[in-house]
Please model this.
Amino acid sequence: QVQLGESGGGLVQAGDSLRLSCTASGRTFIFSSYAMAWFRQAPGKEREFVAAIDRSGGVKFSESVKGRFTISRVNAKNTVYLQMNRLKSEDTAVYYCAALFGGGQPITVVAESYTDWGQGTQVTVAS
Model:
C-alpha cells in the first residue's frame, strides 16, 4: 500500500508562484516504479488532469497549464514536485497527487487509471 502526502498549498496572488510537493511511502513501495501525476478539483467541477511524469522522466501537461507549470521527481526522496508559475484565479482548486505502478508512455491523463491518491492540498489564487 502506498501513502501519498501533499504539501505546499496556500493563498497567493495572481501572478505568484507556488511549489507543491508530494512524498510517497509504503512498506514495499519503490517510488521509481511509479508514474506520478497531479490532478486538481475546483468547487463544483470534476477532477481534472494537470501534469504527470513517468518512470523515465517523460512529462505531460494539460493545455491550461502548459508553459506555466513544471513537474519533476527526486526518486531518492520519494518526492514529486509541481512548480506553478504565473498563477491565475482559475488555478484555484484542491490539488491531488496520484501514483500509477509501472506507468510509462503514453502517459495517461485518466484519473481512474491511477491507483493511489493523496488527501489533497488547497491552492487559492486571489485575483
Notes: Residues 67 and 85 are 9 Å apart (CA to CA). The longest strand covers residues 93-101.
